[in-house]
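Encode chain A's predicted structure.
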Amino acid sequence: DVQLQASGGGLVQVGGSLRLSCAASGFIFDDYAIAWYRQAPGKEREGVSCIGSSGEKTYYADSVKGRFTVSRDNPKNTLYLQMTRLKPEDTAVYYCAANYGRLILSAVRISSGYANWGQGTQVTVSS
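Encoded structure for chain A:
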């Protein structure tokens, strides 16, 4: 079974940084494109970033471009999201998700574009 577990969330002040991790198990990590989504209270889930199976391609939503960096360590079966210059509107539960095969950029723009989901981690940015 595909298992994903996000961690690293917390409370941070505006302008601060956090690094989220997503530990993967139960599947061949190298064969999957991975994405980060987030969902704020009362809002739809939105795709934040995604990365191809070997890290060769990445995508960022306009709202985080230039502030967030996605990366993966395939030998460690781990995905990362480095978040900097955090804003109150970044407050949300962050989830990692996986799709088998090559990266399809359009998938992350759909709230249900990924097939396998992990539990989220809360990020709260205080002003």
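The chain has a mean pLDDT of 96.
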